Structure formats: C-alpha cells, structure tokens
Amino acid sequence: MQKESIYGLTYEQLKDWLVESGQKRFRADQVWDWLYRKRVKSFSDMKNVNKETIQLLEDNYVVQTLKETIKQESKDGTIKFLFELEDGNYIETVLMRFDYGLSVCVTTQVGCNIGCSFCASGILRKNRDLSSGEIVEQIMNVQHHLDERGDQERVSHIVVMGIGEPFDNYNNTLDFLRIVNDQNGLSIGARHITVSTSGLVDKIYQFADENLQVNLALSLHAPNNDLRTQIMKINKAFPLEKLMPAIDYYLEKNNRRITFEYILLDDVNDHVEEANQLVDLLKDKRHLSYVNLIPYNPVADHPYERSRKKNILKFYETLLENGINCGVRVEQGSDIDAACGQLRSKQIEKAKRKKVNA
Ligand code: SAH
Ligand code: SF4
C-alpha cells in the first residue's frame, strides 16, 4: 500500500493517531514543530523525537510525495513549479511577489470538470482530486525552496486559484485550510487566504457556515444568465437567481468582503451594457463587494481574445462611476506561462507528442 503524505493530517488528526498508537500527546507537538516550524524533510531529522515515534511515522507516512520537475523564474520574481505526483500526473503551483508579501497559488484537482469555455484547465477533464497532503505539500515545497535560498522569506498569502474547483474537493480543501492556518504551524492568517469558486451553490452555503475568516472569490465573468451559461456551463445548474442568494447568505454570515472575478473577453462580455448590468447585480451589496477585472490570458484553440485596452478602461470606469469597488488585475510572470493551467497543458502536449513520435 502506498503511504500517504504526513502533510495531509491536521494537528488534531496527528495527535489522535499518535495517541491511539500508544505515543504521548506531546510527541504531536514536537512532530508538528519539526514539520512546519523547523521544516525538516525527513522524519529521521526530528532530533528530540523518540525512536519509536520516528519508526511509527516512517512505517505509515512519507514527507515527500511531489517531485519537482520544472521550476521557472520570471523577471518579476514569480516562480512557477511543475510537480509530478506519485501516479504520474502533473500539477502546477505559482509563487508571486507583491508589496504585501509572498503569495502562492495552489492546485486542488488534476484537471477540472466544470469545463469553463475560456480555461486551459477545463479542456482536460478531471482525473482526480488532490489529497489534502498534496495541496499542503505545494506550499511546503515552495517554503522549502525559500528556506534554501536563505533570505528568511515566508509564504504569507495563499490563493486557491490554480487548476481545479476547490468546492468540488471540499473536504480536502477545508483540511488544507486548517493545516496551513494552524497557529503552531505555518500560521498563515485566514484573512491572507482566498478561495475561488466557479459557484457551486450548496458548497457556498456550507462554506459560509464554517465561519473561517477565509476570503471568498466568486468567478462571475458575466452579469446575466444567457452570457454566463454560454461561457460557464455550470451556470445551467446554478443560475444567478440561485447563486446570488448564496452570496448574500455568505455576506450575512461572515460580514467579509467578497471578490467577484470577471475575465474580460473581447466583444463577448466587455461592453458597457454588461458593465451596467453588473452594477445592477451588485448594487445592493456594493459595500461588501470588490470586482477584480482580469485581462484574459489567451489559451490555444479557444475562441476568445483579450479585451482591448480602451474597452477594459471603459468597463472599469463604468463600475467606478456607479460606486462599485474594482481593480484591473496586474499580470505576474507572463514570460513564464504563469497563467492557470498553461505550463501543465504544455507538459501534457509534450508527453502526447512524445507518444506519437515513439
Ligand atoms: N475553479 C476555480 C478556481 C480556479 S480558476 C474558479 O473557477 O474560480 C481561478 C481563476 O482563474 C478563475 O477566476 C478563472 O476564471 C480564472 N481563469 C481561468 N482561465 C483563465 C484565463 N485563460 N485567463 C485569465 N483567467 C483565467
Ligand atoms: Fe475549472 Fe475554474 Fe477553470 Fe472553470 S475556471 S474550468 S472552474 S479551473
């Protein structure tokens, strides 16, 4: 049987397992500290932990399941990691540098079943969910990379915006959030973490009830059902009249600002008409809304183009004039395929070509 990643356990799970296996509770504190504070890469390096516990850990878990296959660093400091999973699948993780800190974008699934028409991840259907350990390991690999550089840098922010729909892998995503947020571990503040969803309504309600203080982003991309269904087929199952009440519920329960993501696609959803419709859709919650206008990253074989600068500006101004908080996302790492799914799809293309040529 393949051993699972130790990073998949929350502190509580680790403690319960060690105690059930006959070890003292404080061993859990020691192991947790070695994993997340001292950040060793093998159980045998946990110096003050007794031999029996180390053996138990080695018999049941591993510290590393991801294999780094490509690391690309961009001129602006963005680093893109491509990891191979134990089953041969690839995932990607991106480290971005901002004035406010270092943010990591994590992947939650191999592929994605939501199949949005503009997205590189959606072309390849979901192969499987990532385990909580595989999601945490992405952060740990990036942090180990920073540790090795010796500049005392820490991952301070996380965006769950890589490949996959986090709410389609809800429990593992939630365990991931608990693990990275743990005060005695990485201690990445809930307010520094953002989870992005395409709008799985029942899970938005569930997430609202967790009261986590984690930020929520909704990939809206269109202000009316016809257009939204055209570009995101998930809108058929969860149309705006179901989605917006779920957002209202989240706002009521959490009183935290929500981000609406809106990719601007040339001549599709970027007219002043849609900007005005968006104003109408959000006007009753504008004090708790922020619209993130995203310049589209063209994906091969997709029918869309990036909106023209003057249209992006007009859209932005229309929202602002009507009291909607908004901004245009600044691109990171455009010289290294840092956009969602791009490096992975290139790697898969390469593998396919190899097969054809073999
Ligand atoms: N599945 C989740 C999270 C991953 S996608 C979601 O859809 O929200 C993260 C963000 O990247 C989403 O807002 C998505 O719409 C956006 N995105 C996907 N493909 C893109 C592209 N080609 N250019 C710009 N943004 C893209
Ligand atoms: Fe999946 Fe998000 Fe891409 Fe849509 S945008 S296909 S939900 S990863």
Automatic annotation (TrEMBL):
Reaction(s) catalysed by this chain's protein: adenosine(2503) in 23S rRNA + 2 reduced [2Fe-2S]-[ferredoxin] + 2 S-adenosyl-L-methionine = 2-methyladenosine(2503) in 23S rRNA + 5'-deoxyadenosine + L-methionine + 2 oxidized [2Fe-2S]-[ferredoxin] + S-adenosyl-L-homocysteine; adenosine(37) in tRNA + 2 reduced [2Fe-2S]-[ferredoxin] + 2 S-adenosyl-L-methionine = 2-methyladenosine(37) in tRNA + 5'-deoxyadenosine + L-methionine + 2 oxidized [2Fe-2S]-[ferredoxin] + S-adenosyl-L-homocysteine
Span of domain Radical SAM core: 98-335
Residue sites binding [4Fe-4S] cluster per the record: 112, 116, 119
Subcellular location: Cytoplasm
Keywords of the record: 4Fe-4S, Cytoplasm, Disulfide bond, Iron, Iron-sulfur, Metal-binding, Methyltransferase, rRNA processing, S-adenosyl-L-methionine, Transferase, tRNA processing
GO molecular function, one term: rRNA (adenine(2503)-C2-)-methyltransferase activity
Record EC number: 2.1.1.192
One GO-annotated biological process of the protein: rRNA base methylation
Superkingdom of the source species: Bacteria
Active-site residues annotated for this sequence: 92 (proton acceptor), 340 (s-methylcysteine intermediate)
Cofactor comment text: Binds 1 [4Fe-4S] cluster. The cluster is coordinated with 3 cysteines and an exchangeable S-adenosyl-L-methionine.
Claim: Oxidoreductase is one of the keywords in the record: no
Binding site for S-adenosyl-L-methionine: 164-165, 196, 219-221, 297
Needed cofactors: [4Fe-4S] cluster
GO cellular component: cytoplasm
Entry keyword Signal: no
Region forming the signal peptide: none
PANTHER family: 23S RRNA METHYLTRANSFERASE, RADICAL SAM CORE DOMAIN-CONTAINING PROTEIN
Function comment: Specifically methylates position 2 of adenine 2503 in 23S rRNA and position 2 of adenine 37 in tRNAs.
Miscellaneous: Reaction proceeds by a ping-pong mechanism involving intermediate methylation of a conserved cysteine residue.
Protein family membership: Belongs to the radical SAM superfamily. RlmN family.
Annotated protein name in UniProt: Probable dual-specificity RNA methyltransferase RlmN
